[in-house]
């Protein structure tokens, strides 16, 4: 795995140690640095952050980074807000603070409409009894890994460790290494992805965050590309410039989609099992909770040297996938009263580099200047 930048200046290297923040830096800046390392759909990083008073952080959705064609109900965006909040709370505890999180302070949001009000108010208070979370050390190393994994099955004992990393009472966790189930999900994922990108708006939205070259990645500082599939620098250059370039994808979209479908099938053929998270309801608060639990599962997997990648196509909230989503839920044995929030493959694989995060200042409203010169690692 490539080297990652260490924690912010002033922190100690030993894992699990509560660390006081430096005098010249607002503790809120420090915890937000870790929060933005959370996963998000296509690495859109759809978060807007503001500071109020001396202690409050306001988290909102950046609607300019929404995916209205591929994520019309905003589920993926709210899941990513949950992951953001989980990272933030873990970091706060690491530095000796308690994060009091008030979700949807302006009132219960309408799940069918974009949310322009804050997702959360977070107040940080010093707490000498704050207990560091062992998952803190995994935050800078967590990656969405799109490589082919080993076919070695994830043992039930390892799955049990994943199951112990969070409170699953409100967000049940499931896992299976059954090859027939994985193959069934593979076939449904391929069918779903074809349906998803059969629409022009969804296709162009997918390409908007697909980075064909390293230059695109450096300029945009978001999205994902061939590096996250394990291709080396020279390989990425030839693939992204000549074999599967942006120009060729726009000229022959059907070939690009078919190649992506082949990659989806190969990835699900190469994994050690699949996991999933569900909720009894499907309100915004359920989606945020599921995002928090997913981040804990992903961080725990990282600490166990496991690779993980969400499988989003067969559970997308778009018309062509509605029937497929129902089939996936049936295969997983979910009650009809539950909503499938996350589906992911897991296994053993070499690490992958992550595209750079946007500059931390870009998450804040214009004019709010903060000491944001150092970000503790980059992940998607």
Strand and helix layout:
Layout: H1 27-35, E1 47-52, E2 56-61, H2 75-94, E3 97-103, E4 120-126, H3 156-163, E5 173-176, H4 179-196, H5 200-208, E6 210-211, H6 214-220, E7 224-225, H7 233-243, H8 246-251, H9 253-269, E8 273-279, H10 284-303, E9 307-310, H11 322-332, E10 339-347
Parallel strand pairs: 6-7
Antiparallel strand pairs: 1-2, 2-4, 3-4, 5-8, 8-10, 9-10
Helix pairs in contact: 1-2, 2-10, 4-9, 4-11
CATH top level class name of the largest domain: Alpha Beta
Q: Indicate the proportion of strand residues.
A: 5-15%
What percentage of residues falls in helices of 4 or more residues? 25-40%
Question: What is the 3D form?
Answer: globular
In spatial order, strands of the major sheet run 1-2-4-3
The structure class reads: alpha+beta
- As for the number of domains, it is 2
Alpha-carbon Rg, integer? 20 Å
Distance between the termini: 15 Å
Q: Can you summarize the main beta sheet? A: 4 strands, antiparallel
Describe this structure in words.
The chain has 380 residues and is of the alpha+beta class. The chain has two domains: 27-142, 3-Layer(aba) Sandwich (NADH Oxidase); 156-347, NADH Oxidase, CATH 3.40.109. The protein has eleven helices and ten strands. A four-stranded antiparallel sheet has the order 1-2-4-3, with helices on one face. Helix 2 (75-94) packs across helix 10 (284-303), helix 4 runs antiparallel to helix 9 and helix 4 runs antiparallel to helix 11 (322-332). Mean pLDDT is 90; it is low at 1-21 and 373-378.
